[in-house]
């Protein structure tokens, strides 16, 4: 009786190469996702909501917490949906309600759905659509950008806050703050929609604190109308915030530089290992591309540093490529 033969060596090698290529692809994809998240999200400060390098808004002047509620008839009961909002700090716990019937501590925006029947109220859902567990919820990241253009030359402000995972779905809140000079400090937002499948809540919020005359420069400590002798867009402004970085958040030059160098190094190693394995059947240390260079790199760096030091100090004796201890990039015979 014949026994099943094992796969040929070439097939096994192709499988290993495919696995290596897939692993590198996943690594690069994860790095790209992380970089995209870093680019769009930045620490959120409600008193200094920077939309650009010249415009920041103080939303701490809004009277928090804000609650908007709606009750609808759903026979044989009624359903009440409440949205509690505090953009500056986590919502306080309700002492008159059981802990399990509330959003977790660290929530900034919470949807509470209650069923009312025969005079009894039961909380059926408590959804943390804007939440952070970092430092007890005192720190949260957000994406801030200009929205659509409105009448009178104003622009809305779009604010995105990430929430917790609820019912297996990542939650998110999208607020559109619209300039309304006549709005009170405790003006309420309007819920435009809540997509249960995507876990996304959309709110439209008319407020006077989103008007251009309430804007200030990022980091200047609050908004206000410009003085008579100037305008909100100072001609001497160089387009950067007080800390020298782009106020819209994201990575700086050196962060991107190191990230690109890292991705390039991973790609170089991956392609080199793939080529050495596929072309020469290498394994172990022999898989590393240009292994002689990497093996000699510590000595090259040492000799280069010694050469620079001798040039600066004016001494040319000893060390270096030809002096004692110098190996350069040559193998001993």
From TrEMBL:
The keyword Metal-binding does not apply. Residues 1-36 form the signal peptide. Its main location: membrane. It is a single-pass type I membrane protein; Single-pass membrane protein. Pfam families: ATG27 (PF09451). It is found in: Cytoplasmic vesicle membrane; Golgi apparatus membrane; Mitochondrion membrane; Preautophagosomal structure membrane. This is Autophagy-related protein 27. It comes from Pseudozyma antarctica (strain T-34) (Yeast). The lineage of its organism: Eukaryota, Fungi, Dikarya, Basidiomycota, Ustilaginomycotina.
């Amino acid at each position: 009786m014949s026994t099943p033969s094992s796969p040929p060596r070439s097939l096994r090698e192709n499988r290993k190469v495919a696995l290596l290529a897939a692993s590198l692809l996943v690594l690069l994809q994860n790095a790209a996702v992380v970089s995209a998240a870093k680019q769009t999200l930045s620490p959120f400060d409600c008193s200094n909501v920077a939309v650009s390098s010249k415009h920041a808004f103080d939303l701490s002047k809004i009277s928090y917490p804000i609650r908007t509620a709606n009750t609808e008839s759903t026979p044989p009961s009624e359903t009440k949906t409440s949205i509690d909002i505090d953009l500056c700090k986590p919502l306080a716990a309700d002492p008159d309600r059981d802990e399990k019937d509330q959003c977790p501590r660290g929530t900034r925006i919470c949807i509470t759905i209650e069923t009312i029947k025969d005079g009894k109220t039961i909380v059926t859902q408590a959804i943390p659509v804007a939440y952070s567990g970092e430092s007890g919820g005192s720190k949260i990241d957000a994406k801030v950008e200009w929205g659509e253009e409105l009448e009178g030359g104003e622009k809305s402000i779009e604010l995105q806050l990430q929430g917790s995972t609820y019912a297996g779905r990542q939650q998110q809140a999208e607020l559109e703050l619209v300039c309304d000079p006549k709005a009170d400090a405790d003006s309420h937002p309007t819920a435009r929609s809540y997509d249960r499948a995507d876990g996304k809540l959309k709110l439209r919020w008319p407020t006077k604190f989103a008007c251009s005359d309430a804007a200030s420069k990022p980091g200047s400590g609050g908004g206000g109308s410009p003085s008579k002798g100037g305008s909100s867009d100072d001609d001497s402004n160089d387009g950067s915030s007080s800390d020298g970085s782009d106020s819209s958040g994201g990575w700086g030059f050196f962060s991107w530089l190191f990230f690109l160098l890292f991705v390039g190094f991973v790609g170089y190693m991956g392609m080199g290992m793939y080529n050495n394995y596929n072309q020469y059947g290498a394994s172990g240390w022999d898989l590393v591309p240009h292994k002689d260079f990497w093996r000699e790199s510590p000595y090259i760096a040492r000799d280069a540093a010694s050469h620079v030091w001798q040039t600066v100090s004016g001494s040319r004796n000893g060390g270096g490529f030809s002096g004692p201890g110098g190996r350069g990039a040559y193998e001993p015979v």
